[in-house]
Design a protein that fits this description.
By secondary structure, this protein is of the alpha+beta class. The chain folds into 3 domains: 215 residues, 3-hydroxy-3-methylglutaryl-coenzyme A Reductase, Chain A, domain 2, CATH 3.90.770.10; 104 residues, Hydroxymethylglutaryl-CoA reductase, class I/II, NAD/NADP-binding domain (Alpha-Beta Plaits); 49 residues, Orthogonal Bundle (Helicase, Ruva Protein, domain 3). It has 15 helices and 10 strands.
Length: 386
């Protein structure tokens, strides 16, 4: 993958006002067994320990058969907001009465998507009270197949907006995709054998740690951030929209009105740890940077995925694995043990260490438990003078 670099010319065709390229380390997480298949997982991240933790967690999951996944299918929502309506509930019913025709109008905007089995599969209408009065919000449910779907969904929403105005007698404002992709869910499950992860005490400790994230939004925020350490790294590596996936995950975590964890942990009848996750995963293999960025194309090839659905399920497995690894570390030796050894290398480099000196300076700081820039500089001076 290292030779498949993005050129300035390619970058200039992707975004505006290009002045250079910003590189992020790309690594491979190993040991993943997903639905019986060995998977090497490309991860693009600047954060130390993420890839190592994912690989370690995946290794521990293997004794229980690895990760088992499922999904709900690639359906996204378009929202069409209408205001200034005298009879919002009557308008809701009128829209539903003409839902088949509305769907047909939308599908005419993307015949290729329809040809491949996608297109509008349903229409929902929601009446909402707001500080500016009632709103009637129509949702087009669009099967996006192997695309993330933003362009197709937005085009469809704009196409049917005049018809929504005619039916309701109101004014349409927003016509846009929703990133709360609650009809595009990916799920993963794993059984972590007690003997493989440190015994019964570790199993109980992980369950206790996870329970806090289920009821406390302060803990849930960090808990879910750890999940997204893995998910976002794979999303970025494959050229997908990291912000859309992050927005979907965090809004899904708050759908009950309280921000909660995206994973659950239980103890089964054998005393082993069972972890599960369910997350929105709005990713695609068609369009966007996935087909343009050479590294993204190489990452998709490495994963061996054929559909966007395949990719979404890998994201769920990685998210669960990343979360388990973090909870296990927090519940046993603490998160800093592995993290700080890698952090020490970064500090050594910042202080000016090069070559073999990086490891020597990092090892000395780790041994002394004094990992900071001042101490790294002192050690470098001592080595130079000695």
């Amino acid at each position: 993958m290292g030779s498949a670099a993005l050129s300035l010319d390619q970058a200039d065709k992707m975004v505006e006002n290009v002045v250079g390229l910003f590189q992020v380390p790309l690594g491979l997480a190993t040991n993943f067994l997903i639905d019986g298949r060995e998977v090497l997982v490309p991860m693009a991240t600047e954060e130390p320990s993420v890839i190592a933790a994912a690989s370690n967690g995946a290794r521990m999951a293997r004794e229980g058969g690895g990760f088992f996944t499922s999904s709900s299918g690639p359906v996204m929502r378009a929202q069409i907001q209408a205001v200034g309506i005298d009879d919002p509930f009557g308008a809701k019913n009128r829209i539903l009465e003409e839902s088949d025709r509305i769907a047909e109008m939308a599908n005419q905007k993307d015949p290729m998507l329809v040809k491949f089995g996608g297109g509008v599969v349903g229409v929902e209408v929601h009446v909402l009270d707001s500080r500016i009065g009632p709103m009637v919000v129509t949702h087009l449910l669009v099967d996006c197949r192997d695309a993330m779907g933003a362009n197709a969904v937005n085009t469809m929403a704009e196409a049917v907006a005049p018809e929504i105005e005619r039916i309701t007698g109101g004014r349409v404002h927003l016509r846009i995709i929703s990133n709360l992709a609650d009809r595009r869910l990916a799920r993963a499950r794993a059984v972590f054998k007690a003997e493989a992860i440190g015994g019964t005490k570790t199993v109980q400790a992980v369950v206790a740690a996870a329970a806090l994230a289920e009821v406390d939004p302060y803990r849930a925020a960090t808990h879910n951030k750890g999940i997204m350490n893995g998910v976002t790294a794979v999303v970025l590596a494959t050229g997908n929209d990291t912000r859309a996936v992050e927005a979907g995950a965090h809004s899904y975590a708050a759908r009950s009105g309280l921000y909660r964890s995206l994973t659950r942990y239980e103890i089964n009848g054998d005393g082993d740890l069972v972890g599960t996750i369910e997350i929105p995963a709005a990713v695609g293999l068609v369009g966007g940077a996935t087909r343009v960025h050479p590294v993204a194309k190489a990452a998709v090839s490495t994963l061996g995925v054929k559909t966007a659905d395949d990719l979404s399920r890998i994201l769920a497995a990685v998210g669960l694995c990343q979360n388990f690894a973090a909870l296990r570390a927090l519940s046993t030796e603490g998160i800093q043990r592995g993290h700080m050894s890698l952090h020490a290398r970064n500090v050594a480099v910042q202080a000016g260490a090069t070559g073999d000196a990086i490891e020597r300076v990092a090892a000395r700081m780790a041994e002394e438990k004094r990992i900071n820039l001042a101490r790294a500089s002192e050690i470098i001076r001592e080595m130079t003078q000695g």
